[in-house]
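We both want to read discrete structure tokens more fluently, so let's practise on a single case. Once you have written the record down, we can walk along the chain together.
***
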Amino acid sequence: MRPAADIHLAGIGSWLPDQVSTEEAVARGWYDPADREASGMRAVRIAGDVPAPDMAVRAAEAALRGSAAAGLTADDFGALLHCATYHQGPDGWSAPHYVLRHTLDRPVTAAQIGPGCVGMLAALELAAHRLVADASRDAVLITSGDNFSVPLVDRWNASKLFLLADGGASVVVSRRDGFARLLSIGSASAPSMEELHRAGERLFPPGVTVGRPLDFEERSAHMRRRWEQGAAGPTVHFGEVVADTVDRVLEEAGTGLEKVARICHTGYADGALHSIYLDPLDVEAPVGTWEFTRGVGHVGAADPFLGLEHLWTRGEVVPGDRVLLLAAGPGMEVACAVVEITAGRRYGGTREEENQ
């Protein structure tokens, strides 16, 4: 989709906790040395007992400081969209409204957006539609926050595709000027692959309510056993879905992959990064954000925007550069957006910078 009106990113922010190196994880017996070698990961961000919504609030504070340069105030926002891939707090409670209360504190709608790791890009698309359809407000605040530091999650071994990390990210989407302009955005799904993230696990009662750990490796093993026993495997190659979606969104943006300066992608381990993104797109790791993400981990829906903030605040992308934001998640679904950088960095002070 190419927006029917000019849509901008007017502010961006993050909050990342301190890192724990994969070397330390191996020394403590948390992480297998062979898995560490294969993953290429250097470190993971771990928040301890910092609540996920509080990380989203801290990231939003940074994004809102940036959007103030575009003249935006809290009264200009029409909605808050909060993204999460894991549990946020008490059952029956609204994390989006908690984030709203501690940021904009205005009587606007607040909603939680999924699915999973494509959440912030899905929210960006929804925000663009809202701003085009409703001229009564000029901005939407998008936030994300996750903390996997709980007994039911073994962040080091839940999946060989990634290491689960904690953190928050936020972006302000606006009809007014900003540091980047949204050229196009889109998504596609392969619903026939839905079972890959459910494999063998009952729908009811939900696993978390009976103390079942989050274990993607167990589910993958279940599917491999089924295929060995003669069950039909996937008829869709997800890499092709990724490539087709990227091609379409680039065409809608009026550009090509060869004109994209950088790709901000999910924080996968080395093998998954290549098989899901880099190889299908026929690009090399330096075009992406691998050197950044290998020291962070997979922060749920936040990854593409953590990467964009990292590149922009360090001047690695400059006005005129086009950047591809790319994520994939359960469903299976892929989402991507093309933005053009329109302004250089004009504010700072993120927690990530403090950690450098």
